[in-house]
Amino acid sequence: MGSTKEEILEKLQISGREKGFIFKKLLIELSRYISPLGLEIQYNPLNTHWFLTFKSGMSDLILANPFQDKPRLAATLFCAIILCLKSNGIAKIEELKRLRNKKDIREDLKDLEKLGFIKILKNHNEINLTPLIGYLLNISKLFMKLSLKLNV
Asked: What pLDDT, in 10s, does the model give residues 65-117?
């Protein structure tokens, strides 16, 4: 879903020294144009793709907690995000257990894999994140809010 900066520039046949400036200008102008329609341009840092999303109060509420009545999944995913970002995209399950302070998190990991958020690697000792997280969660906004709360 979405396209990289390079793919967009190639499709629009934009090249040269100022292509980065032109790209930013196009994103800003497009954002202004589509905003009244409830659309927003977002960036997925997990796979470096730009994409359009529909933003409304209702969709924000739905995306705020895609785990419904399973806060354990949200907690496990949050810890997995932290560990994966800390260690170049792959987290050890043992570290995840320690961070979650749980003896067994296999069920959480299986559920998160079924939902498409993580991939349990072949050795079953490590996990990595899938790009789906970047489409459903605004990771940069999440970390900005966390850093603001930590600085207070």
From this structure: 566 677 888 888 888 988 888 888 889 999 999 999 988 899 999 999 998 89
CA dist list (Å): 80 to 26, 62, 90, 113, 138: 35, 21, 9, 12, 16
pTM, entire model: 0.63
* DSSP code at position 74: H
Q: What's the token pair of residue 138?
A: 């605004």
Q: Which CATH number fits domain 66-136: 3.30.450.20, 3.30.10.20, 1.10.10.10, 3.20.20.70?
A: 1.10.10.10
In the chain, CATH 1.10.10.10 sits at 66-136
By the 10 Å C-beta count (0-12 exposed, 13-18 middle, 19+ buried), 126 is classed as buried
- Whether 121 has a pLDDT exceeding 80, the answer reads yes
Q: How far is residue 15's CA from residue 20's CA, in Å, rounded to a whole number?
A: 9
Residues 6+ apart with CB under 8 A from 46: 129, 130, 131, 133, 134, 139
C-alpha span between 3 and 26 (Å, rounded):
14
Using DSSP, state whether 97 is helix, strand or coil: helix
